Amino acid sequence: MSHLSEEQEKALKILSELKDSQLLSHLNSCVHCGLCAESCMYYLATNDERFVPAVKVALVSSIYQRYCSFTGRSFPQLVNARELDDATQNEMVDLLFGSCTLCGRCTMHCSIGVDITYVTKVGRSMLAAMGLVPATLQSTVNAALQTGNNMAIPTDDFISTISWLEDELRDEVNDPQASIPLNQAGANVLYTLNPREPKFFPLSISAMAKIFYAAKESWTLSTHMYDVTNYAYFSCNFEEAALIAQRLYAEVENLQARRCVLAECGHGSRAFRWEAPNYLQHPFSFDVLTSVELLAEYIRDGRIRLDKEKNREIVTLHDPCNLVREGGIIDEQRYVLSHAATTLIEMTPHGVDNFCCGGGGGQLAMSEYGDRRMKIAELKADQIRRTGASTVVTPCHNCVDQLMQINNKFKLDVNIKTLGEIVADALVLE
Ligand code: SF4
Ligand code: SF4
């Protein structure tokens, strides 16, 4: 066995510490039926066998066998055990970071229930321990850690964007008292944002502000911590993920909000709502819900009134993997759309079986894999084209970004909207 560096020892410790029945069964149960191949966009778009999901499991399993099993330590060739050398590490980076969106579709299709995404995340966390997270992804995490938001937007710029949006809101609703509150203690809702919103898509902030105004909600944004994203969830450095989650947790407590509402962001919702209690090792002391659920609640409770005739174009819905397949939020956005637009044509497949947009798993941040990302996007372009829709709605800003690139590259000529935007377009203000 070759000499291992301190970082490699740390990576292997992750495997040995996780050595429980969950990890063992997912690493050792694959029966090589090949069914997962057809579920993965990377394989479907390229026919390259390296991209079969089971190959990713086999790669992590081969390292486990080499260092954590008696047979692999004594007779490595018998169990395809591999050294954690440069070649193995490079292959891990390429397959686990560069060829997976963590979409979870393979796990759902596996004939015997191997949790392929869990194994991929274990492999990513080993790479994180060795300092091998792609620099582009790590710099996004670093920006969040150092500045409080992943786009490093200075607070003054953020405040002036919000102030400008507040003026626009007052004009639009014809009410000089309408506001976009900042750092207001004791509000019912602390609303978060994806930093793409203040940077590139401020109109989605306007849309939610208009909805909050119509619902007469007591709400606030925070200037200290508004970022819903957590890219350390993708790098699988769980200490960094916990630091980012703790900041938002502390800000909700600091402002004494009753509810933390997560902006339209699939992985951000997953990382805070479902993963943060694990990262932080304690439950929330406030309610946490996604804006999709909040919009459905406002409609159900009659707090906002919509006229779907205002959106008469054909609409289709893209399901963000983390919200739908992983989070089980499937019907709420369909309920909202049934009130906000006249015609919804579903993609094939849709709901829990929908394809990823291609930009998940941190792919949008990892520009070195951009060509691959746009290659697998052909599948999403085909899905959209087949619906005949002129508007694609998705409750995720990361998906919006990827869908806009798909729209340009494949000349789909569609509008891309968040759920909040299409709801705001249908609002009937009293
Ligand atoms: S999680 Fe998605 S992208 Fe990753 S291997 Fe599975 S199907 Fe492919
Ligand atoms: S579907 Fe499951 S059992 Fe079959 S090859 Fe893929 S990972 Fe292995």
Tell me about this structure.
This protein is mainly α and 430 residues long. The chain has 3 domains: 6-132, Fumarate Reductase Iron-sulfur Protein, Chain B, domain 2; 138-298, no CATH class; 305-426, 3-Layer(aba) Sandwich (Rossmann fold). The chain is built from 21 helices and 8 strands. The strands form 2 sheets. It has a 4-stranded parallel β-sheet with strand order 2-1-3-4. Strand 7 (391-393), helix 20 and strand 8 (415-417) form a beta-alpha-beta unit. Bound molecules: iron/sulfur cluster (SF4) (2 copies). The site of one iron/sulfur cluster has 15 residues, from helix 3, helix 4, helix 7 and helix 8. Residues 30-36, 53-54, 57, 110-112, 114, 116 line the site of one iron/sulfur cluster (SF4).
Provide the structure class.
mainly alpha
Spatial strand arrangement across the major sheet? 2-1-3-4
* Number of strand elements: 8
Radius of gyration: 22 Å
| Count of DSSP H/I helices | 21
Order of helices and strands: HHHHHHHHHHEHHEHHEHEHEHHEHEHEH
Cα shape: globular
